[in-house]
Design goal:
Helix 3 (156-174) packs across helix 4 (186-198). The protein has helices at residues 20-28, 60-107, 156-174, 186-198; strands spanning 36-42, 45-52, 133-139, 145-152, 207-214. By secondary structure, the protein is an alpha+beta fold. It has a 3-stranded antiparallel sheet, covered by helices on one side.
Length: 217
């Protein structure tokens, strides 16, 4: 978006020493002092600027014509280099998301309490590699089970992070081992979870949550 680049609107070599682009390059790279600036790219995208200082006595037109012939190959090489780098970044991102998916799945219970009177089962398939949905079955100190099904707003990584936070709060307040207080009711558990999630939540993300109590007796 630099205004100096407007002189390359026609993608033609520049040799006017008073052009804005020369002043911009001189300010960024003192001592470079090019004679000719040659754009590399397509009509839609400027990939690079080739800065040349011609040898004394060089045939200017011949040199520029040679560069025009080489510019296609140079541009293709640059585009390929960018594509390779983008592919590497994409591969790293894919690996990181796969690790995040495995971590997120480890948050979900792999087995559930069963009896002759009830059965509990769950199936989880996020829309993306990671997501904001979660479920839980939490054994409580009095023998009851807390059943949780939740859906965080949005999808992807932000939802996955908020999911991990929400799940942690639900578990901590449902079964506060080693804490100085005990939650007195289902409502007090959800109120504590809500207060904790609302505190320091500049993105105003939220979770829609079902929380039920199952008494096996």
């Amino acid at each position: 978006d630099h205004p100096a680049l407007s002189v390359f609107a026609d993608r033609q070599p520049q040799s006017a020493q008073d052009a804005l682009i020369f002043a911009a390059i001189a300010g960024t790279f003192p001592g470079l002092a090019p004679d000719v600036l040659f754009p590399l790219g397509s009509p839609e995208s400027l990939l690079a600027i080739l800065c040349l200082r011609l040898a004394p006595g060089a045939d200017r037109e011949s040199e520029l014509e040679l560069l025009r012939l080489l510019s296609g190959s140079l541009t293709l090489s640059l585009e390929n280099a960018y594509l390779v780098e983008d592919s590497k970044k994409q591969a790293r991102t894919t690996r990181e998301l796969e690790i995040a998916r495995q971590i997120q799945l480890s948050f979900l219970p792999a087995s559930f309490p069963q009896s002759e009177d009830f059965q509990i089962a769950a199936y989880y398939l996020p829309a993306r590699q990671v997501g904001g949905d979660f479920y839980d079955v939490i054994p409580l100190p009095d023998g009851r089970l807390a059943l949780v099904i939740a859906d965080v707003s949005d999808k992807g990584v932000p939802a996955a992070l908020f999911m991990a936070l929400s799940r942690s709060y639900v578990r901590v307040y449902s079964h506060p081992k080693g804490r100085a207080f005990q939650m007195s009711s289902l409502e007090s558990v959800l109120q504590a979870v809500n207060d904790s999630l609302a505190d320091g939540n500049p993105s105003s993300m939220f979770v829609t949550l079902f929380y039920g109590l199952l008494d096996p007796q």
